[in-house]
């Protein structure tokens, strides 16, 4: 009787990673580690390893697809099928299935996003056993955050649209990747595989086009005259073709009438960070930032990392003040209680699935990259409550023959949030105000125009996030202003993918396209597939996936459009000769 009663009320939680499973078990109370799960009272907590299942490849549907032929394209299975990624992944699936069978209710606690939703739903389909299922939407891995998320767990059906967005993304990437990779590779008559991807190809095109700009760039040198006074210098706003001309222009100047202007400027604190913000700010690879942030999340030190928001929900001030009390000083606490501009912090309209990355508690013994990243997140967090810093800017100038010479000095009057970023505090000594000043020397500086810089992880993440800047047509540019290539969770992986397939290599911090990367973009542009290299198409697809997640677009319509578009590209390519 006792065994029957216990089994009837056993609840199973499935997480995306083993470390998250342990955190949940700890939050549920006294727990034991078993071979395939943790047990805490009538809860069992088990885990996946990220994706456990992957789409089958064409040759697994029909052996004829072992040979890559244009006449077989496009390949679109009547029904897409999945398989375990490896023997270890199958073993994990078997363990989950056994626990699932015993459970009364199953809780999905995979990462709170469309990819985490897809991971769980594929496991659910593989297991094939109907049970009541609830969705745990984790924002933090603190015990309080976990308990709150479990208490608020909703029926899994509430997230069906999110699952469809993840599923259609997966199927669309298969259709595009499999078919266009085969088409391009066959047409190239090459032993190399030329990988094509819905997101990776337009990202590669951004890198390649910058390299073309650099190759075409012709540097020009000009010369800027400088007037030297006692204690300061004024630079000319005009440059000259030769050093001689620059010196001859200022040679007659003996004394000048100075003009002084002093004004105050305000510098607002940065918003709370999203994942992309942190990837731009950290001095290392974007993927490393995500991995380090994930480690901090799993240690219950920061909120959910894969977010594109810079704001918090409007019901969080009490929780935020508690965090500030742990991490800040008395002034920080004062401003957190009465923020200078609450709408720059709390705004439900600017929070979708996840809010900004914030610290959650004081760590115990962090070191290395984790310490660096956590301390930066804390500084951003504590800064956001403060009023703008105030700087006093002194501009000193003079004119000669209608040409302006000037310099600026900056001194911080009110550091405000600069206290958390002391390197921003300026303390220039202002130039004494006099009517006239005598020129004691004249010199010239060489001004050389430089090519546009190569992309780095940081600048490319920003470019992917704001794809609209690469579009010339104004209406389309405006239409995708807030859309990007890829998602916050995938952009770093796309960069690593481009490197792994041999299209891009790193030169220190710069991302440099290889000959193979340059060649494939040129080939696509010349053979009827240039559309695939343009950011607007991919940005529109990402927007449609968001519409599917919001229940505003039919999932099957999106995939049918992708299939039709792929078929059209292949037809166009077949019409052209090499």
Q: Which features does this protein show?
A:
578 residues, 17% strand, 19 helices, alpha+beta
Account of the protein in words:
This protein has 578 residues and is of the alpha+beta class. 41% of the residues lie in helices and 17% in strands. It contains 19 helices and 19 strands. The protein has helices spanning 2-8, 18-27, 87-102, 114-127, 143-151, 160-188, 200-216, 243-250, 275-281, 286-298, 317-327, 330-337, 368-383, 457-465, 474-479, 491-500, 515-526, 535-549, 555-575, and strands at 11-15, 32-33, 38-40, 43-47, 53-55, 82-84, 105-109, 133-135, 154-155, 221-228, 233-236, 255-257, 259-267, 389-400, 403-414, 436-438, 441-448, 504-507, 510-513. The strands form five sheets. It has a seven-stranded mixed sheet with strand order 2-3-4-1-7-8-9, with helices on both faces. A six-stranded antiparallel sheet has the order 13-14-15-11-10-17, with helices on one face. It has a two-stranded antiparallel sheet with strand order 5-6. The chain is flat, with a radius of gyration of 29 Å.
Characterize the main sheet: 7 strands, mixed
Gyration radius, rounded: 29 Å
Number of strands: 19
The main sheet orders its strands as: 2-3-4-1-7-8-9
**Low-confidence region ranges:** 1-7
Cα shape:
flat
- Termini, distance in Å? 76 Å
Please state the structural category: alpha+beta
Number of helices: 19
Helix content: 40-55%
- Mean of residue pLDDT? 92
* Percent of residues in β-strands: 15-25%
Sum this structure up briefly.
The chain has 578 residues and is α+β, with helices and mostly antiparallel strands. 41% of the residues lie in helices and 17% in strands.
